[in-house]
Write a structure and sequence with these properties.
alpha/beta; 2 domains; twelve-stranded mixed sheet; globular
């Protein structure tokens, strides 16, 4: 059943809707009506769970799923597959999230978001999938900035790391933000978030489709730690002070480096200039550690109008997209993680 009016209802199906395999993201709202969970039968009955379009403008996951499903149109899937198609309303308008909506990847069980239709819907998805006992969970995303393809885990455990390593030797372990899909599913099966590069890049789509096909054909995941991964740990999240304007051209209170995306997944040494600020008594950034503590002074200092790094870090998810920076964050700061 579809949602009506402003009421958000979960669709649940056991077959693909007509036209789904060729649908563009902006056509799914008309096709599905609301967030949709689709169960497809395969030879191995224990399903792989895959979610996509939790952010409506991140389309590579949908196209990767369509490519895989097209390859099995005339033969059975090697494993059952449960698909969750998320924010179809935002996808219709090519937006990460619509005004007035919560972020669909911050409202899963474990969130600190206030109770709302979206938190109840995600709880429903998890409750349904618990009964299906999923083999593994994969959440597909894009980055807006220049980043490598990488996998993320919320638990440093052998099968979780193996699932991520199948996608990339670069693996990020994080515990915040909370309320994300992979964290909710980590309680019931190995779970990963995949970052598939920028929207529209064909190598990201093909990489994700090959990965999905590989996982569908697995009988099990190894129960020993992979030895050939670069495991990074997210230690802080950096957001821009909501009371201050920022730009990349010097026309605002905070001037960010124009080449900031080049810092992603590289060691940025202490004393590197991070930004310039006009005269202000406020800290230009809010920096929170995994416990939610303000750790700005652990990472940054002011030298005149310059904001300088106090320690060497590895940033991720820098972007020049102003809207994404406001909706989500400026970047995450990481360190190498020793198992």
């Amino acid at each position: 059943m579809n949602g009506t009016g402003n009421y958000l209802m979960l669709n649940e199906m056991t077959t693909l809707p007509d036209g789904f395999l060729d649908a563009k993201p902006d056509q799914l709202k008309a096709m599905l009506g609301s967030p949709t969970l689709i169960h497809l039968q395969g030879k191995n009955p224990r399903p792989l769970f895959v979610s996509t379009l939790l952010h409506g403008n991140e389309s590579s996951g949908l196209f990767a799923l369509q490519a895989v499903l097209k390859s099995y149109e005339k033969k059975p899937l090697p494993r059952s597959l449960s698909l969750f198609i998320g924010n179809v309303s935002a996808a219709e308008q090519d937006q990460r999230v619509l005004e007035g909506q919560p972020d669909y990847n911050r409202v899963w069980p474990g969130t600190d978001h206030a109770d709302c239709q979206e938190t109840r819907l995600m709880q429903q998805v998890v409750d349904i999938m618990k009964k299906h006992k999923p083999f593994a969970s994969i959440d597909l995303h894009n980055n807006t900035g220049r980043n490598p393809h990488y996998g993320c885990v919320n638990r440093v455990s052998a099968q979780y790391l193996q699932l991520a390593r199948l996608f990339s030797h670069t693996v990020v372990y994080f515990t915040t933000p909370i309320g994300v899909q992979s964290q909710a599913f980590s309680a019931i099966c190995p779970a990963v978030t995949l970052e598939c590069g920028k929207v529209g890049e064909l190598d990201g789509i093909s990489h994700a489709s090959r990965y999905l096909d590989t996982v569908l054909q697995l009988d099990n995941l190894p129960d020993h730690n992979p030895t050939d991964i670069d495991l990074l740990h997210t230690v802080a999240r950096v957001t821009v002070n909501k009371e201050m304007d920022f730009s990349f051209d010097g026309s605002a209170e905070i001037k960010l480096e124009a080449s900031i995306e080049l810092y992603n997944f590289r060691e940025v040494k202490e004393n590197t200039e991070f930004a310039e600020v006009s005269q202000s008594e406020s800290e230009p950034f809010e920096v929170q550690d995994e416990q939610g503590n303000n750790v700005y002074e652990s990472y940054f200092k002011a030298e005149g109008d310059k904001i300088i790094l106090k320690k060497t870090v590895i940033p991720a998810m820098f972007t020049r997209n102003i809207d994404v920076i406001r909706q989500d964050c400026l970047c995450y700061l990481m360190e190498h993680f020793e198992q």
